[in-house]
Amino acid sequence: MFILPTSDRESKRAKGKDKKKTSPWVIVTAIVGVVLIVGVVAQALFPNPAIGNLFGGVNADELYQQAQDQIEAGESDAALQTLAQLIASDPEYTEAYLARAGLLLDLESEDADEVKANRQQAQDDLGVVIEAQPGNAEAYFLRGKAALLLGQVNNAIVDFNKSTELDPRDLEVYKLRGQAYLLTSLIPQALNDFNYILSQEPDNAEALLLRAQTNGVNGDLEAALKDINKVLAADPQSINALALRAEVYFNQREYEKALADYDSLAQLQPDNAGVYFSRGNTRFALNELEEAIADWDKSIELDPTSSEAFGNRGVALTSLERYAEAIADFEKAIELNPEDAKAYNDMGMAYYAQEKREDALAAFDKAIELNPRFADAYFNRGNVRRDSELYDDALVDFDKAIENNPQFINAYNNRGNLYLSAGAYAEAQADFAAALELAPNYNLLHFNLGLANMGLGNLEDAIKNFDRAEQLGLDLPDISFQRGVVYYALGDRANAIANWEKVIEAAPESVETLFNLGVVWFEVGEFDKSLAYIDKAIELAPDYGQAYYTRANTLAQSGKYLASIPDYTKAIELEAQLPLAYFNRGVAYYNTQQLKLATADFQMAYQLTDDESLKQLAAGNLRRLGAKPLEESASTPTPTP
Q: Which of 41, 273, 384, 392 is most open to solvent, judged by the fewest CB atoms within 10 Å of its CB?
């Protein structure tokens, strides 16, 4: 605005006092003229469109067109300013709200709060549009998009439904609604949307990949691969298709194929941390630990904030027994993400591998504190507690592991083994059977179920369990050992011997098996064979009292009474509470005419045994020797041969 000098304004006012009254129409005309003049001046002095518009300059449509031009030129910030000015000058200009919402939804920023604020503002703008134009399909679509980006999935679906109702031809709406359905696990609805898009555009790569992703979530990996391969046939370097196919291959455990796709992705995107992270996971699955670590090194170099990369590298380092490095990685993962329960669990495993049980327990405790439904952490803590002989606490942990993951096969197995050790055979049987429902071909479970059935006296079932474990490839000498025990209990000594001799072929220094063979050959009257096995058992275990006792019996049965006496004596020395050893040595003394020593041994047998039949035998022998049994309360000297 021009300001006249004060003197001029005062002089004009003074001159005006002497004139006649001016006509109102003249005044109006003069005012209009002044306004027009001021508008022109204002437009020249103040290029701000809003001020110009206030004085009759650029109109709202021109401002809107200016914003559109700025959008097309990629000048998003300038366009937003223009649209804000337009809305301020004309709050009912609906298209301005629609345009601003579209811009805000497409804006990118590293500031998460700013992105969220933009999306919320877009929602508000679109609400204004919908209120003014309830039949505007695009407004519903954009508001659904804003809701989807804000995580308001159900609201998004409602808006997408309205948009398709108003304009069923817009395929973009079906695409986003399908994604919303996928997020809410409404798989059939998601597939319907992607199928519709593909019915209109059979080669729509984005829809093909979305349908592949949906089929992958639904477990139909073959259908997923079919769609992905169609995309790759048209574009062999499609990054999204390669990444999705690699993931499908990984989930199919076709790790070599997954690795090939990740190799291609690494060539196409050499600076993508996620590619190296996923390739590291694949190499770890292939047990290529050093190569996996190299990939995670690269991933961390490109993105040092990835707690998952540090955590996974720590797991590989644990497998390589590089525990200090592993724990350093877990600590870094926790530093980056203090709520990372998995990192605490994995750190517990590193401590457990070093037998640092207290440290392991502390780490598992923290993992469970952060995630009270963490089945793996309960399972691992249960193992530590079991190894620390805290059996009741271990049982509680295995219970919690199964409660939080009813498909946890190893938790059933470990709990079953605890029950087995405690003699709770029915509970053990139930756990092994439950695990076998989940994994019918898990050979070790069949073996363990056999042990439970042995404990319950289901001997024929136990043999079937052991046979099945062997058929499924369990190469464990203990199968033949336990099966031999079952056959022995069934009175089938031939099969018992066959099984135990099979054990000796695989484990020639199995003392228990050698001893059992010595016993069974003794029972069938093959004394030389019995002595051969017992001699070997004693050679390997010089303090095995029962072996000396069995060898002594074998010698005595062979009529070698004098030779048997040192073995009976050694057995008594090692296991003093062996009434039969005293009795049989008494027989050996009797047959070698050492009658005083025989009398003393029969007295000891009489006093030590609770078996009435043995008491009667000992008493009868004492009477033949002219003695009578001493009272149990009487002091009894220890005889010496």
A: 392
